[in-house]
Amino acid sequence: MRSSVLIAAVVLAGLPLRAQDARIGVAMPLTVTGQALATQRLKAFDPGSSNRAAGFRATAYPTLQLGEHWYAYSAVQVSSEPFFFYEAYYPEREVEAKVLQGFVGYTWTAERKAFSFKAGKLASAFGAFPLRYDDAANWLLDQPLAYGSYLRMRPDQLPCGVNDLLHQTQYREEVEFYCGGAESERYGILPVTLYGLPGAEMGISWGRVDARLQLTGSSPANPQSLRSASQAMQWTAGAGYTIRQGFRVGVSAFRGPFLEESVKPLLPAGKSIRDYPATAVGADVQWAAGRFAANGEWQWSQFAYPRYQIQPAVHFAYAEVKATVTPRVYVAFRAGLQNHGRVVDRRNRAADPFQPNRQTYEFAAAYRLNRFQLLKVGYEWLNTQSASGTHDNVLGVQFITSVTSLSKAIR
Questions:
Q1: Dihedral (Cα; 282, 78, 393, 327), 10-degree rounding
Q2: Measured between alpha carbons, how far is 138 from 128 in angstroms, rounded to an integer?
Q3: What residue numbers bound the domain in which 358 lies?
């Protein structure tokens, strides 16, 4: 599978490099990033290892225009580990390829209104950051916590109660619950995936209003492939309103099962995984004026398990600001938080919070060498409740090359 993806990318890259408008044609924008990290996170698994690592990420976006309204789109990522900041904690050192998206779509537009439909492997319709999941579009180097930090919970094991959640602070890497389930090791779950989900989505815009509805075969908090026995249909919805040019506010939500097949025999009699869903709501804002721009999101996510009166829930939020100093230089800053709520189990044992809260602060400066290449240097501070020191801080450098003109008109 991985080799076929790479071969397809090479074939498309070999097409004549001239952007043309056409009713039938192919295009393949490409972003390639080289990165260097310096952080003590790299010593989490092996204290004797180096605190420096180099990595790369290449993302290609092959697109086939199939007429005035129909098209096929895909996004293919090849990356080394560790590349993303959260991967620096874990021992894997490999190169892997992933199909992030791959779908067939239909669009119709008219004056001040539009309609779209797509089916296949889709980016989640929850939140706003998935639209900027590209190193050339992300102002900083890391991702906001909800998209780039493992939540220390498992969908393939059941916790016995509050103590199971509290005990996770004793483990640096793996997450383990004690009331049954899968026996494999697991690091937790990303609250919102940046990888695709099999499903279908309808979107509309009318004047200043836009809306989307997505039906998928698994949760944005626990994506599953079409071959997985743990698939479960669920919905994600979002909407936005553009107050004026450069100023938009939005909301989104999702709900559906997130537990996996391995826990079904362990559920209370008469219950199914649909009785224990993951639920999330969020709000986002985008603003730009002159040399300045800003983005922000707030999210609340709850993950239901048996044996709890008050279920585990987490708040995430971030705000980021970008200032263009010159046409070639900008600086950006992001502040984020991850707050764990209060939980109460069936035995009336309680914890508030059920895991340590966290805050991040990241600063980056960028220099655009030319219209294809961007150099970013950034530093991230990670503060964890009841922990001190600079062990989790990260210094990073990215060199990004973007090519948007790979295209071929067929007709």
A1: -80
A2: 12
A3: 105-402
For the whole model, what pTM was predicted? 0.89
Tokens read off for 327: 């046409």
CB 243 within 8 A of CB 205: no
| 57: in domain | no
What pLDDT sits at residue 22? 56
Tokens of 170: 């004793």
124 Cβ neighbours under 8 A, 6+ residues apart: 130, 192, 193, 194, 197, 214, 216, 220, 236, 254
* In-domain check, residue 231: yes
Confirm whether 277 is domain-assigned. yes
DSSP of 321-333, one letter per residue? EEEE-SSSEEEEE
Count of structural domains within the chain: 1
Residue 254 forms part of a structural domain? yes
Give the CATH number of the domain where residue 172 resides.
2.40.160
For residues 37 and 71, is the Cβ–Cβ distance under 8 A? no
Closest among 122, 143, 117 to 132, alpha carbons compared = 143
CA distance 119 to 70: 12
Neighbour-count burial of 216, counting CB atoms closer than 10 A to its CB (0-12 exposed, 13-18 middle, 19+ buried): buried
Virtual torsion, Cα 376, 379, 383, 387, nearest 10 deg = 130
Summarised one tens digit per residue, pLDDT across range 84-106 is: 999 998 888 899 999 999 999 99
pLDDT digits (tens, 9 = 90+) for 168-226: 877 667 899 999 999 988 889 999 999 999 999 999 999 999 999 999 999 999 999 88
Which among 233, 193, 239 is positioned nearest to 212, based on CA atoms?
239
Compute φ and ψ for 88, nearest 5 degrees: -65, -20
